[in-house]
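Hello, quick one for you while I still have it in my head. Could you read through the record and tell me how the tokens relate to the sequence? No rush at all, and the record is pasted right below.
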Amino acid sequence: MKKIITDEGLFNVADTIDRLINVDISARGAIGVLFEAARAQSGGKPMCLAAVELLKKAIKPGDYVFITTGWAEQPSNIPDKSETDGPAGAAALARAIRLTLGGLPVILTDDYLVEGMKPVMTAAGFHVTAPEQLPKSLSTELGFACCPTLAIVGLPVDVEEDRRMESELLDRYRPSCCISIERGGMNRYGRIHGMGGYDFSGSQAKMDFLFTGAAERGIATLGIGDGGNEIGMANIEAAIRGKIRNGDRCKCPCQSGIVPDFAKVDVLVTATISNWGGYGVASLLALAGGKPDAMCNEELEARVLNSYLLAGFHDTISSCVAPSADGCEAAVQLAVITLIRKSIFMGLSHFPVPDCE
């Protein structure tokens, strides 16, 4: 990988991105608590930088990378459709990992969300194939550039079947990294909660076993979330229990709070909207890897957001099928990407590696 920005410049850009993606546009009052706790845990290092360092160290060309996302947060009304936060960020991460590190992304989601995920990932420029076919997509033997390709695998809601399948996937494909973005995390009683304190366990595949299994196998793990109830938030359990609404006491019979305390991750990234965490980490990875073309951009992201109309995915705030996430319209989502890109190019102008000036 070609180095195009100094270490100081990369740190400064990462710090700016951290703060951009954690601005409390939604005014829910939670992200400040999560941000401060996660930054403190990282020793003051920008979370996005810690994530990029983890990815660069873990992933080699041809390695499988598991990315889990998708949340059917209205299982009674629309039982087979995801909210719009999560999939777009997962697509951005998958693209940067594929183009920058040569990793082979596999999207893991609920089995009933697989068909909806396909147009989203296609809009991000991916071919979709079976996991075992992914290594073939790296071939350039006939003179063509490698086609960005990923796989989408669905998992069932049943706890024991989840545990078995996730263990099998880890052993079969031996991923070098497991990533979660906007994916509900279990507590010790096997419950998955929304921010409002309600129980979503009955409609969610339990992806936590993927992360406990990864830890047992020495596989790198990254979690991205925005509410305190996602996989990875166990890293900052005390802050969530003490300062986040419903953190210590939920509205379901377990009465143990929304914070997951079952699976921790190596690096936690918080964001006001989880997609923004995906945009930030993906764009910084592209910068650190010397591949600016792998960054998020407004044109590509507009395509991804519009693909939600084909997928039937909905904004969890308005409950409408729309190219928006968590109540923020497409214009807001694209503005965040514009600001991320601007900070990167300003950083490049101030801190170029000498032979790249």
